[in-house]
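Weekly sync notes, structure subgroup
Attendees: PM, AL, DS (notes)

Item 1: joint prediction request from the bench team. They want all three components modeled as one assembly rather than separately. Inputs as received:
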Amino acid sequence: MNFPLSIESINLTKRFGDFTAVDSISFQVKKGEIFGFLGANGAGKTTAMRMLSGLSKPTSGSAVVAGYNLEFQSEKIKQNIGYMSQKFSLYEDLKVKENIRFYGGIYGLTDQQIKEKSEFMLHQLNLGGSANTMVRSLPLGWRQKLAFSVAMLHDPSVIFLDEPTGGVDPVTRREFWQLIYSAADRGTTVFVTTHYMDEAEYCDRVSIMVDGRIEALDTPVNLVNTYKVKTMADVFVKLARKATRGE
Amino acid sequence: MHKSPIVVDGISKSYPVGKEKVNAVTNISFIVNPGEIFGLIGPDGAGKTSLFRILTTLLIPDNGNAYVEGFNTVNDYHEIRKIVGYMPGRFSLYQDLSVEENLSFFATLFNTSLEENYDLVKDIYNQIEPFKKRRAGKLSGGMKQKLALCCALIHRPHVLFLDEPTTGVDAVSRTEFWTLLRKLQDQSITMMVSTPYMDEASLCDRVALIQNGNILDIDTPKEITNKFENPLWAFRSDQMYKLLLDLQQMDNVIACYPFGQHHHVVLHQDQDVPEILDQLKAKGQTNLKAEPGIVTIEDCFMQQMRK
Amino acid sequence: MKQLIYFIRKEFYHVLRDTRTLIILFGMPIAQIVIFGFALTNEVKDSRIVILDLAKDETSRAIIDEISVSRYFDLTGYLNSNDEIERTFREGKTRMVIVFPPQLQYELSHNKSSTIQLIADATDPNVANTLVSYASTIIMDFQRNTTGLSFPLDIKTEIRMLYNPQLKGSYSFVPGVMALVLMLVGAMMTSISIVREKELGTMEVILVSPIIPFRVIIAKMIPYLVLSMINVISILSLSYFVLDVPIVGNLFLLLVECFLFTLTALALGLFISSVSDTQQTAMLISLMALFLPTVMFSGFMFPIENMPVPLQLLSNLIPAKWFFYIVRDVMIMGTGFDQVWKETVILIIMLIVLILVSIKKFKVRLA
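Output from the run, pasted for the record:
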């Protein structure tokens, strides 16, 4: 897949009745980029993310994700993306290795591949001794790191992360971001939402959604300079305050 | 017994997970002063919620005693329930009731009414009033949060317990929420607030950093950052990821982690910086910059965790 | 008092705003009554019967001919001796056995009188009743026709109902359905509504308020008590006006007993809510622990008298069994309170025990 753009959204729109959740958003994400997707609650982030991952059909507009057209090839898209969220990631009542097997199976990996990958993954995460541990009894931070690696199991070209670090301690949060960096370094495109404003600074580029539209899109440094403030948190508050939708 | 609104004295609590027992909090003690905003800062699973439940009389500690306004949380739970307000972790609202129905329900629960304590909640209520006929389930996260706060305040509690009121809420609503809390302080309500967002610590009068059921430190946010033991530097360059890996490999670097636009680097001594810069240049780093970093609660938390 | 009233009002909001549950609440009893009412129709066609013809003479053959051409019966075979009767029933091969006595023609011609035995399987009393009356009619007709010709005959039919001699079961689906509906509405809905508050986290706020647990319990029970009584009235009206099930006894007594049973169901619901933490658990416990025993022991499917002794003993613990007896006696047999006071007392004792246990188990804390 030698495609320079990993995600290209053109006037992507989603309406529910007369409510426009996502209002004609256009942007591009380069291969291997870490793209921060910010917005206030209800700005339309989740809806946009659902459309891009092929879970929800856009009302109008189009998008190409991982080289496939959203309209005609959403099944192809699903095979080539990974998805992880704070709310749902792993089965808590399954063991670590059972989770890996399950997701490997879903993406059609062979037994041999699953075996090799899970050994590598557990080693990378220092979870070598925990293959037979119930996911439930792992600390939250480890669980989230494991969930990320499991979502990367099938080497997706784009990974969508929906608030992946919510509630995680600061050290583990850094370790998580180091996993993100290394994935991006290997060429995976990372599309991430977060409520931690410092994490917005770790992204290569950041977009901020307000009332269903992308209000700003640039590198964190440029955004901070453009809006003449000190941090991304200030940029965010400045932009999101403009929201009229409120609900 | 005690003049302090909240006294926690050697509290421990464990709960069973499968066959094992897991300690939620281990031998924790602290005192909250009258009219203070006391922050409980720590990640999920640190034991914050258990502590809240013990103080709100919902759980009985295995060991130790806790007092709210001088009342023992185990024996005098009836008294405590009259004088505290509690906003549990997930905002506890009835999704199928409207804003005003929720409010009047929680008001009658405490034998009061919205009108009776209107002056206390009016700032918050004004913000949600336009939606008073709307079902709570149809409110945005920020609005739900304000409604839940309003419900917790409606009986003019002496002590207010807010368990992660800002979790999952966007940065704008979070800022607004903290403004509301500071205003409540004028009404001499003591507040205990927990949060996983370290940047919110600076908004509290005093904070306890909590991890794995243990308190790492208790102090004013300023004192906590003043106590940071090592030199802290902020580095940046054109290749941030490579910079991170390079710095982490150096012997004279205690810790290096991404922090905002920079990488925070904890050193043994300031004198090491020129040498580090030279080494980084030799590794091909360009546009390299290093400046003394501003210590935050998060830096302190991580330092405590490394111990 | 205001506190309690608002709490109850809030509970009604929950119930009335959940359209789907409302439809189930009120649709279920109606659907069940209609289904049972029309499924248990008295029209019986092509029922398998077997004949033991010990006479093997002209008269017996003539009657057999009449019976075999009837569209009600499907004559599947003949037996050779009395010993085989029990087995054919046990194997489920037949609904009724007609036994012609050895000397039928002889007795008729000499004594002008004889007796044909009709032995029916009364586990389904409606069917048994119908079959017997059809067969009797055919025999009567035959008798009348023959009589008109030459000599007056008197063929008696001796009816034996096997397995359920008192024909318990006819119309018994009404008390059965009532027990079922009240149990489900009362116990399942109450338990779910309490456990939902645990799941939502609102229970935490309620507990951390000065409200007395007893009031919470009362507030939770009253809406479902009202709903259940509405269901009682709709079930009774439906059965009376649409299905022609008679209400022989005192209506007021019947309603009071329904009220008592509903309270028992609500108390059971409270108990279930105190042992479950999720709505699924509450629902599963309600279904497994209440639905099945209620169906089994409320008599409208299986007569308790025919169950193995251990099950009969177990059935004494099921409130629905006693309620079933009460409703059957009062509604269908028309007996007064003097006949059902024992059952009533048992229900009252069950209610008191359940309420005491529930209040004791209702936690003023989380764990």
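Discussion: The domain at 6-218 of chain B is CATH 3.40.50.300 (Rossmann fold).
Action: AL to compare against the crosslinking data before next sync.
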